[in-house]
Design brief:
One of its GO terms (molecular function) is L-serine-pyruvate transaminase activity. The chain is built from 13 helices and 14 strands. By secondary structure, the chain is of the alpha/beta class. The protein has two domains: 138 residues, Aspartate Aminotransferase, domain 1 (Alpha-Beta Complex); 235 residues, Aspartate Aminotransferase, domain 2 (3-Layer(aba) Sandwich). The two termini are 39 Å apart. The mean pLDDT is 97. It binds pyridoxal-5'-phosphate (PLP). The site of pyridoxal-5'-phosphate has 12 residues, from helix 3.
Length: 399
């Protein structure tokens, strides 16, 4: 028997749950794209997009997903033959770096494995050894969505500054913007990219490239950029049409406008961060209880380095895959699969899954998802510790 009829919960790390209000804002006839309200919508949204990233720098909008804006970030900042340092803590920066290599950038990849944050000592050693300042940029993700590690971007920015190295700090905030604390200007981030479909609660298809003054200076000498992806007209358009270099993504913009109002005007960005922090603590408390005397493991051991938007879990294969099937068919909860986590004894990653707690998620959704997992462990006879729901409930009861 399925108990999944009712509202389905897609608990995967993007696309995230879209608020009904975002969907309703999109449900309207196509607007005039040559003048009027649409112009005000876009121009009014730019300051809000900057507020979300805590920056006074520039922001460009692109009609694409995260991979598209990865390419925009690279091509607007770099030239053929430039050297960069890429800091991989799971999966995503390796993919971004691979793209850089394919367009003619020399990449030094520092890989910190599948369950650890960036080790700042290693970065410091690399930067100090680079006395000729060959590195043009350093690539990192705030949250790696595969490992669910959360890197300390503030500390990395401070380290780069302390070494005096001029490399640009380029950060992938795809899975963390509007979920986790992020201070672009205060932390010394030069280039940042993000997309619409995670913390910003809007359908996939819009992405954002942020650049500070150093980032915009880098654009002046970058020779990899092509006309469509050029950030310059997009941040300082002579005519409206240049914001998107063609037809604006009208309905995505309507949705995003509503999402920004919900995040900034109604809840408040710091409260959004605090909600994500609290919900993630409840998720961790549950998994810590389940892991007692069992093979269930949080992928990231140290709480300080756990993402506030996604949690990666390992268990004995094939229990991860079985559990995902069970929760979806029986209970109406879709979990994320374990990406980038293949091991020699588990090439198909059947021992992994991920839960998202990003975006439009509240206490009852989180407790509901955890309750379904508890039932799934029991139904599938997956060994698990006791008291997980009690532990999560206690966290949510506390101020
Ligand atoms: C989701 C994600 C991406 C890729 O985004 P797409 O829209 O799927 O291209 C890149 N980096 C991180 C950290 C992500 O979480």
């Amino acid at each position: 028997m399925s108990l999944g009829h009712g509202r389905h919960y897609l608990s995967i790390p993007g696309p995230s749950v879209m608020p009904d209000r975002v969907l309703q804002a999109m449900h309207q006839a196509a607007p005039n794209i040559y003048e009027g309200a649409l112009y005000e919508t876009v121009e009014g949204m730019l300051p809000d997009l900057k507020r979300v990233a805590r920056t006074n720098g520039e922001v460009a909008l692109y009609i694409c997903n995260g991979h598209g804006v990865w390419e925009a970030a690279l091509t607007n900042a770099l030239s053929r033959g430039d050297r960069i340092l890429a800091l991989n803590t799971g999966r995503f920066v390796a993919l971004w770096a691979d793209m850089a290599q394919k367009i003619g950038v020399e990449v030094d990849l520092l890989d910190f494995g599948k369950a650890s944050p960036v080790d700042l000592d290693q970065v410091e050693a690399k930067l100090k050894a680079d006395s000729q300042y060959h590195y043009r940029a350093i690539l990192v993700a705030q949250t790696d969505t595969a490992s669910s590690v959360r890197n300390d971007i503030s500390a990395l920015g401070a380290l780069i500054k302390s070494t005096g190295h001029p490399a640009l700090l380029m950060v992938d905030c795809m899975a963390s913007l509007a979920c986790d604390v992020f201070e672009m200007d205060a932390w010394g981030v030069d280039v940042m990219m993000a997309g619409s479909q995670k913390g910003l609660m809007t359908p996939p298809g819009l992405a954002f490239l942020y650049l500070n003054e150093r980032g915009m200076e880098a654009r002046e000498r970058a020779d990899l950029v092509t006309p469509y992806w050029d950030v310059r007209p997009r941040v300082k358009p002579d005519v409206f049409y240049e914001y998107f270099f063609g037809t604006a993504p009208t309905h995505h913009l309507f949705g995003l406008r509503e999402a920004l109002t919900m995040l900034l005007e109604e809840e408040g960005l710091e409260q959004v961060w605090a909600r994500h922090a609290k919900l993630s603590q409840a998720v961790w408390a549950a998994f810590e209880a389940w892991s007692m005397g069992s093979a269930i493991r949080l992928n990231i051991k140290d709480r300080r380095y756990r993402s506030h938007s996604v949690t990666s879990i390992s268990m004995e294969a094939p229990h991860g895959t079985e559990l995902r099937k069970w929760t979806e068919q029986r209970a109406g909860v879709t979990l994320g699969l374990g990406i980038g986590m293949a091991q020699p004894d588990d090439p198909a990653r059947h021992g992994y899954f991920r839960v998202a707690h990003m975006g439009h998620v509240n206490a009852h959704m989180t407790l509901g998802m955890l309750g379904v997992l508890d039932a799934g462990f029991k139904a599938l006879k997956v060994p698990h510790g006791d008291g997980a729901l009690e532990a999560a409930s206690r966290i949510l009861s506390e101020a």
